[in-house]
Amino acid sequence: MMLDWLLPALLAAALGLLFAGALRRIRLWRRGRPEPVAFLAGLAAMPRRYLVDLHHVVERDRYMSNTHVATAGGFVLSMLLIVPVHLFGLESRWLNLALLLATLLMFCGAVFVFLRRRHPPARLSRGPWMRLPKNLLVFSASFFVLTLLTSGLLPEGFGGWVLSILLAAGVALGLAEMLFGMGWGGPMKHAFAGALHLAFHRRPERFGGGRSTGLKPVDLEAPTLGVAKPEDFTWNQLLGFDACVQCGRCEAVCPAYAAGQPLNPKKLIQDMVVGLSGGSDARYAGSPYPGVEPGNASGAPHQPIVDGLLSAETLWSCTTCRACVEECPMMIEHVDAIVDMRRFLTLEKGETPNKGAEVLDNLIATDNPGGFAPDSRMNWAADLNLPLMAEVGRAEVLFWVSDGCFDMRSQRILRAFVKILKAAQVDFAVLGNEECDSGDLARRLGDDATFQSLARNNIAVLNRYRFERIVTTDPHAFHVLKNEYGDFYPEGKGGDYEVLHHSTFINGLVRDGRLQLKAHKGGTVTYHDPCYLGRYNGEYEAPRALLNALNIELSEMERSGYRSRCCGGGGGAPITDVPGERRIADMRVEDARAVQADLIAVACQQCTAMLEGVVEPRPQIKDLAELVADALVEEVHEPRKAAMSQEQP
Amino acid sequence: MSDVIRRDPRTERILRNRLHPLHESLAGGPVRGPTGLLRRNPHAVGFIGPNGLKRIDRSSTGPAPSGRDLRRSATTHSEEPALPLHRVEQPDFYVAAVLDMAGGRLTSHDRDILGQAQQLARSGGGQGAVVAIVLGEAREAGFDTAGADRLIQVTHCDGQALDDYCPERKLAVLQAVEDQLGPRFWLFPDSVHGGADLGARLAVRLGERPAVHAWQVTETETLCRGGSGRIDIRRHTPRVLLLAEECALPVDDSRHQALPIQLDEYPDVRVCIHDQGLVPVDPSQIPLAEAEFILSAGNGVRDWDQFHEVATALGATEGASRVAVDDGFMPRFRQIGATGTWVTARVYVAVGISGAVQHLQGIGRCEKVVAINLDDGCDMVRRADLGAIGDSSEILAELLALAREHRGGKDTDATVPETLEVA
Amino acid sequence: MPVETSLNIAVLVSVGQHPVSGRARRADQDARAVELGLTLAGRSLSLVHVGDAGEPALRQYLGMGLRTMTVLQEAPEADAASSLLQYFATHPADIVLAGVQAERGEASGLLPYLLAERLGWPLVPRIAQIRAIENGRAEVLQALPRGQRRALTVPLPFIATVDSAAPGARQTAFGPGQRGLFDIQRGLAQADVARAEWVEAQARPRPKRLNVVKAKSAAERFKAATAKPQGQGGQVMKQESSREKAQAIFDLLVAEGVIRQ
Ligand SMILES: Cc1cc2nc3c(=O)[nH]c(=O)nc-3n(C[C@H](O)[C@H](O)[C@H](O)COP(=O)(O)OP(=O)(O)OC[C@H]3O[C@@H](n4cnc5c(N)ncnc54)[C@H](O)[C@@H]3O)c2cc1C
Ligand code: SF4
Ligand code: SF4
């Protein structure tokens, strides 16, 4: 019978090609910069990362999660059995039976894939991805029937040569898609690259429920700073790009994309794939960057990315909100890649757009982005009598004031927080003029040199004083203090304190009964999760608990919690200000209007500024600190005089 | 207007007596009472027009409606005493003041320099004479009251007019003055109108180390403002001084002879720099950051064609709020504010702009802000020196009409062409 | 821009000072001069600094895309002009650009004049742009107040000072700035003796002149005397007719001199 020799030959050829293709792919990844990984541990952890962590993300789409388990599980099992059964001709009833079940499982999964693909949502890519379900069906069906034949469960000579030819064709087609395609850049590439990506992920802390959101420092002595060409990425970043399944979940949540700015995270990752393997984006079959005609991008590992694969505006549109990363089932790190490329533009080319250059100059010359006199940091609190660290030396809480001290609106938040601290009789102090900008903005704008110098200055100051925790009202400062300063502590010195956001801290005070609160009065309230508090630091609960303590029943927006839509204020986006069709903040206020909110509670001064920048009429915007301060039940016997004069003149 | 000072006791009396039947017709506008307090007569605003309606004409530029203004200005004149004449017949030394004369007239800076020159001429023994040096055509008659004892006015050198940018020729004239009079001090306004340039040129030519940005000068000691305005340098007063604005009080209590002096001969000039004339600059093309008069549009502008017309008619540079830009009515480079341009205009007119912090940041350094807005409580009106509450298109329409009347009136009377702006 | 490619263009750069914090930085006008030079000569532009190559702020100029900078190593009290004079005697240039005045110290803006006088070159102050260089002559635009410009022609070689109205300097990039090299030459300047006698102190606030009557006519003087002092919030017109409001605005425009009388 023809299949007797054809089948093993086809299998051997397909496996050989897969092997060759895989080697080639690995060589492409290795053109990236070296980065050490725990090689064996990573490989060993891979199945668990796939089954637990990845599925945790995939599971947000139940349909797809089950489908994927059936299809992928079926396929992996099938392949494991096909090799002994059909390549080496091992004859075993049990193996055959198992193989039949595996292919059946895969077939069932493939049917669901097929159904999903009949009317695919806009975020999904077309092109080769449209033929995948059919080939999955063909593969599983062919091997099912084939196994039926070879296992003797069907009568000898069943179907005759017609069936043989059909099967041969089916097997060939299936193998071509599943094995050849896997090695040579077909849709199945994701399985191979994805598995290795999980094993060698550059943020292994993310697995097992952990969180790793801080950016990695730039080595300022390196011959080029940041990423100019695809080969300037680390090898496992390149590997990560290759894992993308073009599911478009990132595209669906990206605020910049929705605002019509020229950014689409999926396309960006695909462009990186084009860059690492060389070629053009002519075959890309998903949504383009808004306002940019696809098909004109081309690149190669050693060619510049900007103005070859994408334009700088694409990179500067990102608000670093991490919605894409949160949503990506392959755990790809879009923000790292974007910031890496920005670093090159800022540190090597000096091309931070719009007000970027000015802001960075200010940060260098005055330690704050607005260019205000560095010794005027305490002007906002002239009447508040705040204890200065320089005078008291130690306190339980260090109140990190942040650059909000220069902005009249943010000062209201700061004052409200001071009122709360005083009401709860917290032992706190501030750094005053010794404080510098946290460096968040400089870092997101790609200027790691300025970030590092600000961070080192701040650390030197922090190391001078004794305190147990830092509390700040600014989630951006909170994030860098908590997650990014760790790389810069001089050997073994400092960093042994807790960093808290004011929402967490105030909630703790309320829980401990140190604050007496009245019920909030007013209309419908909704809460906007700041990206740097929520997705970056996982704090979704404390703000809600606090609002609950104010007797507020939240009317949650459709996108809230880990799916919260960015206000548009992160990543230096308001400074680079890439034009789009809409404003991100407008869309966010629209979200709030959709739940008839009269008030948007926020937990970030940047969000306050962005949302209040929306043209009136719109819901009121108030920070948690302001809501709590308004609801404080004033103590009858005021312990300290200073706590009296609160209202801003 | 004639400078003869004539008192009119009757009018003065009527003006003092608010119950006088003729008082109203004379004291139409705001008037100072005998104690110097401002007196306003709220009933006297406006006049009755031909159709019997009350009309209020606030234009100070329009034709004087009655003889009232003339008479009133006559009365204010009469308050000025005749100034004593300061004579210097045989000067022991000279103090040279080289004047900018931007627009052919004494600038306030020039007057400060002359004031300083007079101080130096009267100190340090002997009697000095202040020589005002005017290079190029001038349309100024008040050198005597500004403090010039002598006047050197040179309109041509080397057969060429001194009106364009010709620092080499002007320097030659100054050298001639140096040769002829050997002034004890050379004073220049430290200004962008040529004073700083000419002063530096003369200083290096004479091998003198000038005092620059000098703001407090005595005969022996000078205080100069240093770089970025952060330090003061105290030093011996040199021969050549480039003086800051308001370095000294202008002369206001004496008249001076302003006797002309003729220069004998000029040194040879090698002219390298040739003036090709002013490049015509359309006000709308001036970069926002440099513009000195900006008409800015926000979300409250209803009629965009009208807005542009007004800007053209007033000769203003156009600006915009971010919303106006986002909505596509104005190009992005016109945006003013945190993410747009930071402007330094002398006058900023905000039409239908609410005054969000991000916008106000961009106009922090504007001198006079005018707001046209429906909402009298908005932050822009609070920031403004003048807030006009009302619909933008109505007020703009009136403004347009006013600008056209103004233009119309101007084209007919043949004014002297402006050569340079007066700052 | 028609520019002969073989031109030698040098920019004199100094260490500036941030107006608010006083920290060292590239001086704004000098950086604009570098920008102007870069658009004319590209990377063949040469930068010259008199002072100390150890000053980190100098790297901000290199970060604008230049590989090297010449530093005439001098003590702080040296007279920069004599040092530069010797330098240009051996390194001829066609155009020398500088800022109008420094941001530190005396900031007299005299240095370019001294150089020009001693080299016998013409000096064009406050330029905003070099439009063309043809047949040994340059056509430059001089910046005047209110965004006005004047065209001048001047033969090479010449010195020009660059006004703040010239195009803003490009951003300085950290990487190239750190990698740029200093060509350090021992300077031979004389000490600036005159300066040694001066006394420097923190700037005192200058008293604001009160009620200066700048007006020409009695009516205007009257207006100046009765004008509301600044900083008391403005006048708000609500009830008046549109015509009156417009008239008030128009009067203000005229009084401020932004509408030509
Ligand atoms: C990060 C960030 C950066 C920003 N940067 C800038 C910036 O650089 N520049 C900037 O301008 N904005 C900026 N904004 C936006 C800013 O917050 C405001 O949204 C914007 O300035 C409002 O523009 P507006 O005043 O034109 O519109 P509105 O706020 O809608 O105000 C319109 C005004 O017009 C008045 N009005 C309405 N109709 C009429 C009428 N018929 N006649 C007269 N008046 C009328 C209304 O009373 C109102 O006061 C920024 C916002 C953010 C968050
Ligand atoms: S990057 Fe991730 S979320 Fe985006 S398309 Fe690829 S796999 Fe999907
Ligand atoms: S971080 Fe946010 S803005 Fe940036 S690509 Fe991802 S989703 Fe889009």
From TrEMBL, chain B:
Domain Electron transfer flavoprotein alpha/beta-subunit N-terminal: 95-271
Basic and acidic residues compositional bias, start-end: 68-83
GO molecular function: electron transfer activity; flavin adenine dinucleotide binding
Keywords: Electron transport, Transport
Span of the signal peptide: none
Source taxon at top rank: Bacteria
GO biological process: fatty acid beta-oxidation using acyl-CoA dehydrogenase
A Pfam family that the UniProt record links to this protein: ETF
Spans annotated as Disordered: 49-83
Family: Belongs to the ETF alpha-subunit/FixB family.
Protein name: Electron transfer flavoprotein alpha subunit
Species assigned in the record: Microbulbifer rhizosphaerae
Lineage: Bacteria, Pseudomonadati, Pseudomonadota, Gammaproteobacteria, Cellvibrionales
From TrEMBL, chain C:
TM region(s), chain numbering: none
Family annotation (InterPro entries): ETF_a/b_N, ETF_b, Rossmann-like_a/b/a_fold
One Pfam family this sequence matches: ETF
Molecular function (Gene Ontology), one example: electron transfer activity
Keywords: Electron transport, Transport
Domain Electron transfer flavoprotein alpha/beta-subunit N-terminal: 30-168
Superkingdom to which the source organism belongs: Bacteria
Family: Belongs to the ETF beta-subunit/FixA family.
Family matches, as PANTHER family: ELECTRON TRANSFER FLAVOPROTEIN BETA-SUBUNIT (PTHR21294), ELECTRON TRANSFER FLAVOPROTEIN SUBUNIT BETA (PTHR21294:SF8)
Official protein name in the record: Electron transfer flavoprotein beta subunit
